[in-house]
Amino acid sequence: MNIIGRLTKNAEVSKTPNGKEVVNFSIAVNDSYKNKAGQRIEQTEFVDCSYWLTPKAVTFLVKGLLVELSGRISARAWLSSDGTAKAGLNFHTSAIKPLGKPAKQENGQSTQTSAEKQSANTAIVAGSDDDDLPF
């Protein structure tokens, strides 16, 4: 499954209790459609994402960056601290492809450093193998 969206904030690296590092981030996916009256309806969905392959991805996953993600969706359920049942979806990312530059800050400066710009030019793909191409 592929999705395209903009990062809502800078990615963060966290560690599981067994020491495995994961990059967590969220993207906003914009969509629009026309209702029966012919009016264009805009909607935004927010998708929580995780990337387990390398924590180095955090260096270029900055707020506003447009990315194409490949991976799979999983559902999770838990109890909050007050005992309320909660549920959510997570996109387990296997490949990240930057599609553009992050949105500019108010002062016109980009949110990327020069090292991040260099990293953003390369897509991160898990198990990329051209032998698997269907054509």
Automatic annotation (TrEMBL):
Q: Which Gene3D superfamilies match?
A: Nucleic acid-binding proteins
- Give the GO terms filed under biological process for this record: DNA replication
Which CDD domains does its entry note?
SSB_OBF
One Pfam family of this protein, by short name? SSB
Which residue intervals make up region (Disordered)?
Answer: 96-135
Q: Does the keyword Ribonucleoprotein apply?
A: no
The terms under GO molecular function for this entry are:
single-stranded DNA binding
Instruction: List UniProt keywords, sorted A-Z.
Output: DNA-binding
Q: Return the Polar residues bias intervals.
A: 106-122
Which NCBIfam families does this UniProt record tie to the protein?
ssb (TIGR00621)
Q: What protein name is recorded for this chain?
A: Single-stranded DNA-binding protein
> Can you name the source organism?
Sphingobacterium siyangense
